[in-house]
Amino acid sequence: MMIGVMALQGGFAKHCETLSKLGTNWCEVRAKEDLKKIDGLIIPGGESTTMLKLLKDEGMFEPLKEFTSSHPTFGTCAGLILMAKRVENPSQDSLGLLDITAGRNAYGRQVDSFNQLVNIPIFNTEPFELIFIRAPQILETGSNVTVLARCQDKPVLIQQGFWLGATFHPELTNDTRIHQLFLSIVNQRRSVAA
Ligand code: GLN
Question: For 96-113, what is each residue's pLDDT tens digit?
Answer without folding.
Answer: 999 999 999 998 776 678
